[in-house]
Amino acid sequence: MGERKIFVSSAFGRKIKKLKKREKKELDDAVLDLSNDPSVAEEKVGDLAGVSVYKFKINKQSVLLPYAYDENEINLLTFGCHENFYRNLKKYKKA
């Protein structure tokens, strides 16, 4: 099996710019885990069908990283803390 390509949404790109260097490293580690095995995360149902959410920590705070994937690519949608996360993700997915 070949390596999956990783794509980031514009929302994901904007949020990355706000991170400190150490926080980016923790995010990079999480993305690396996903690229090795995208099926490790919990797949959502209902309005968020087709989206998986990977949970990890930045500065001891829980962060959620939603993404969609197939055998060729991983699409990173956004990331953030749990507060209002799924509500905002539904709005993002509809857009």
Could you please describe the fold and organization of this structure?
The chain is an alpha+beta fold. It has a single domain, classed as YaeB-like fold, CATH 3.30.2310.20. The chain has three helices and five strands. It has helices at residues 10-16, 21-36, 85-94, and strands at 5-8, 42-43, 52-58, 61-69, 73-76. It has a five-stranded mixed β-sheet. 15% of the residues are buried. The mean pLDDT is 90.
Question: What labels would you give this structure?
Answer:
alpha+beta; 35% helix; 95 residues; YaeB-like fold; five-stranded mixed sheet
Write the layout of secondary structure elements.
Blueprint: E1 5-8, H1 10-16, H2 21-36, E2 42-43, E3 52-58, E4 61-69, E5 73-76, H3 85-94
Parallel strand pairs: 1-5
Antiparallel strand pairs: 2-3, 3-4, 4-5
How many domains? 1
Give the number of DSSP strands: 5
Radius of gyration over alpha carbons? 13 Å
Classify the oligomer: single chain
- Count of DSSP H/I helices: 3
Major sheet characteristics: 5 strands, mixed
Q: Structural class, please?
A: alpha+beta
**Named CATH topology:** YaeB-like fold
Distance between the termini: 33 Å
CATH superfamily, called what? Answer: RelE-like
Largest sheet: spatial strand order:
1-5-4-3-2
Percent helix: 25-40%
* Highest CATH level, the class: Alpha Beta
Helices and strands, in order, run as EHHEEEEH
Shape estimate: globular
